[in-house]
Amino acid sequence: MKKNILSLLALAPLAVTADVSLSHIFTSNMVIQRDQPITIWGTAEAGEKVAVTLTGETEPDTASATADDVGAWAVTLPKRGPGKPLQLVVQGNNKIELKNILMGDVWLCSGQSNMVWGMRVSENAKQAIKEGVHPDLRLFAVNRRLAKEPEDDIRGSKWWPCVPRTLEKTSGKLGYSAVAYYFGRRLKQELGDVPVGLIVSAYGGSRIETWTTEDSWKSVPELAEEYEKLRSANKVEPAAHLKNNPQTRSRYPICYNSMIHGLSRLKIKGTIWYQGEANMSEGALYFHRQRALVNGWREIWGKDMPFYFVQLAPYRYPKDKNTALPHMWLAQQKAADEIPNSEMAVTIDVGNAKNVHPGQKRQVGERLAGLALKHTYGKDVEADGPVYKDHKIADGKITISFDHAGKGLATRDGQAPREFEVAGEDGVFHPATAVIASPNKLILSSPQVAAPVKARHAWKNTPDANLMAGSGLPVPCFETQ
After folding, report:
1. 164 and 132 in contact (C-beta within 8 Å)?
2. Is residue 330 predicted with pLDDT exceeding 50?
């Protein structure tokens, strides 16, 4: 009897009070999105009163809430611009104090293993890590987890100011995402006094479907039949997709549920995306999958949310006839052309035929940053490389015109442009001689094709393409229409 009484007494405090807590995304050193209303949320005992105060160089902002029947609470504070570090105090049955908070721009960095790929295993790792001291660049890594149902909170350690140890140790044995770091570093260099926060939420091997909200499939007619099959199967099968390397096989939103949904109330500036290897064989279908992903995320973060993504790098895929990537590249280019406020960082010149994780992550991150600086921040920077515009046929030759040729077409090695082909009415392609005819025009011809009707560029998984703009940005794969 005495033992039972003591047990009840030990449990009694839990029945009377519960600690107030914050979502895992809120820690000291974090960056909160500037110039947007600030939503803070967490859990407490049902009915508990919670007061939230943000203090700093101006008058404090305070708001309060009462936890609902399941213990959830949220408050919204007025927007603020960048300035000196702030302190966040949350008072309920207990008190939480977060320090050194900055108002700035928050970017979500997502995708699969090339976004996960860390600083420790990227090109020039030791020197880059040693020089990685940027106190107003803050880093957060979401834990890699999978879930059958949407979860209200993510899991992660905490926000870290960018210093060498952070780059080397954060986010597992590979270190912090190299693409994300180089993206954020360039933004910070160009934006001056505006702090930058990077949230990496990526999972190696994951298909795009695992990041896509289930309802957003309905927004793309081309996915309607597949969506209905998904809904039917989802009643009985999702548990099986949490086993046996699930991220490469699953069509369910198991990454979205655990690694994105819990961030949905957080304000962000935009997103960068590096994914597609797990969907590489789908070609044109990937364009529709990307539309669905963006539609779903824009339901969360607004219809104008910037979405900048990476072209898959060249790689000699096993069991492939060396032509699957060009179809994927065309799908990605179509996404850049047709999804509003979406741009692609071209990486056709920084791949590794023997490694699906090329080490040149600096170029990738900086090209993504260039797109953001130009299209989101309105900076006058060279960010859009040459892309196929149109063509004309005359005298057995095809003249290709390019948009965004910048300072004019050139080749990175000073040799003639390579990896061009032309075809006649029979549809058989042959190697073509390419000559730069003007700053934005290229003339193609082949002795094997007297009357060409079609041309294409870099039509293999591992092209040795060398055409670029004078700025150094390469020409992606294309096929004339």
Report:
1. yes
2. yes
